[in-house]
Amino acid sequence: xxxxxxxxxxxxxxxxxxxxxxxxxxxxxxxxxxxxxxxxxxxxxxxxxxxxxxxxxxxxxxxxxxxxxxxxxxxxxxxxxxxxxxxxxxxxxxxxxxxxxxxxxxxxxxxxxxxxxxxxxxxxxxxxxxxxxxxxxxxxxxxxxxxxxxxxxxxxxxxxxxxxxxxxxxxxxxxxxxxxxxxxxxxxxxxxxxxxxxxxxxxxxx
Length: 206
Description:
Radius of gyration: 30 Å
Low-confidence stretches: 59-64
Helix content: 40-55%
Number of helices: 8
Strand order of the largest sheet: 4-3-2-1-5
Number of strands: 5
Distance between the termini: 64 Å
Strand content: 5-15%
């Protein structure tokens, strides 16, 4: 049990959070407080207790009230996640995680520190040749799968036609529908039913 805070201190933080803490919860806070305080050297005692209660009752409907407590809970929670859980979270956010590289890959070849291994990974994975190869592969396999490129147009697309240049016959920019595509030009129909031939590279998707 910690000697840094009292039972009454824990109860007071619970009251501030509008929670009636059980005896077992209070005992847990007093037992684990010192290890949390050692991990969190920037917060005061009440913020540490708040973080502990939030972590302990993460299924209850309350959240940390101080920004410091929120940050410390997040740091602690991240450290508790396994590599697989972190990968799954990144996948949910749209990142590809089936081919992640780590310092262990480098250290399996060279006798280096973690920092040195990170430097090798950075130079290996972010150099121009590697990045160009990745973008090229994305383009190749995306085309092979038959996916439509974002800068491609097809009949029926709703597009923005820009203000006219010296060769155009329309008077101002407008929104219209592509009715025909021939070579580098698209025939776009405006809201009045009039059609105009516009270079494809001047159109924008809407």
